[in-house]
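Example record

One chain of 327 residues, shown exactly as stored in the release files.
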Amino acid sequence: MRCSAITGRVFAKHDMSAPPGSGQSETSARLREVLAGLPRDIPVHPPVSATVEEIEAVHDPAYVRWIQKMATGSCFLDDNTYVSDSSFEVALAAAGSTHAAIERALDGENCFALVRPPGHHAEPDRQMGFCIFNNAAVAVTKALRGLDRVAIVDWDLHHGNGTQKIFYPSDRVLYCSIHQENSFPGTGWPEEIGTGKGRGYTINAPLAPGATLADYARIFSAVFVPAIRAHRPDLVLVSAGQDALADDEHGRMLLSPPDYGVLTRMLLDLDLPLALVLEGGYGPSHGQAIAAIFTTLRGREKKDGDPGRPRPGTVRLAEKLQKLINY
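Predicted structure tokens for this chain:
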């Protein structure tokens, strides 16, 4: 099975020394930990930069100009999102490389864009949660020039409020998010299902803390996979944040690195082009989770065992969300 990665040194240039105790974890050191899990025999393609026009197809031009102005030095834009003097260049590369991963997936090479800064919290006119431009949204918006429909699966610990907001009125993008309930940024409830033509094309699965693979697998098998099949997309893009790992201090979930291989397999079994873009993930075992994803993308994973029994609350949530699927 063909697969590859897109990454490069440019993504280390978005960096800012944070004072001790600041809690800032979105640094270039994180990417080094991610790349430690990249198998040596995986083809690695160089980054590709988006144009300003492609960014402005999603983000307010005034906001884009403001980011460009602020990124002439180093400063925090909010409590946890910063820019340095290279951040505008790096953010263009993150969005452009995500679209390049989509193009490779459509050509039969499932591809993981290992980029930073992440993007799924960025709204059309606002940065948030380490995110400057919404990499997934910029890439999908460009891809929709030639595709009919796309599905986005966001398995980051946190809800991708920006991606949801951008595609909320659209029936061409199915957005499926599984995340820890009552976590940052406080959005992503089952009642948030889209608006207008997009009603029913947003599916949110907020899981209670302590969720295991059994809970994730139930949502995937009972809700996300059937919804994607019903949507009949040309492509699946994963907003791949691995911060639901048990050793990630940002959350209270209990996934292990191999579990991400299982989730990847469930999406591969849809037999659709699959691209992934890096979102969050800050725990010591993050690199191992990346390795598990690539093992599955190459078709070398071990046969999946029984993930176990999900909690009653997860079963009830899945039954509730099943009613939202547009069959």
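Notes: The beta strands are 3-6, 44-45, 75-76, 82-83, 110-113, 150-154, 173-180, 202-207, 236-240, 274-278.
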